[in-house]
Amino acid sequence: MADSLVWMQTLKENPQGLQDKNWITDPLIANNSSINYCVRWNRSSKSSASARAATVKALQRSLQKWFDVLVGFEDFP
């Protein structure tokens, strides 16, 4: 119920919002199912290979959560 109210309010405030082309699915479609990330490393030292690998795994987990929900929704690939 609350999510429906939030969605209705969002559409009321920005009725053309779905045409913005800044949703997570838009770059996926535009880039042939590829997403590029720019990650800011806010440290004075260089990032280690293990830190970069952990970042990749965290991004993959996050995206997988989206895909688990979206697959099959309104013809999502």
Structure description:
- With 77 residues, the chain is an all-alpha fold.
- The protein contains three helices and no strands.
- The protein has helices spanning 2-13, 25-30, 49-70.
- The longest helix has 22 residues, at 49-70.
- The radius of gyration is 17 Å and the shape is elongated.
- The model has no long low-confidence stretch (mean pLDDT 85).
Multimerization state: single chain
Helix content: 40-55%
- Uncertain segments of ≥5 residues (pLDDT<50)? none
Largest sheet: none
What is the overall shape?
elongated
How many DSSP-defined strands?
Answer: 0
| Gyration radius over CA | 17 Å
Query: Helix and strand string, N-terminal first?
Result: HHH
Number of helices: 3
The chain-level mean pLDDT equals: 85
Give me the secondary-structure category.
mainly alpha
- Strand portion: under 5%
The span between the termini is 27 Å
How do you describe this structure in short?
The protein has 77 residues and is mostly helical. The protein is 52% helix and 0% strand.
Keywords:
77 residues; single chain; 3 helices; mainly alpha
SSE blueprint and pairings:
Elements (H helix, E strand, L loop, with lengths): L1 H12 L11 H6 L18 H22 L7
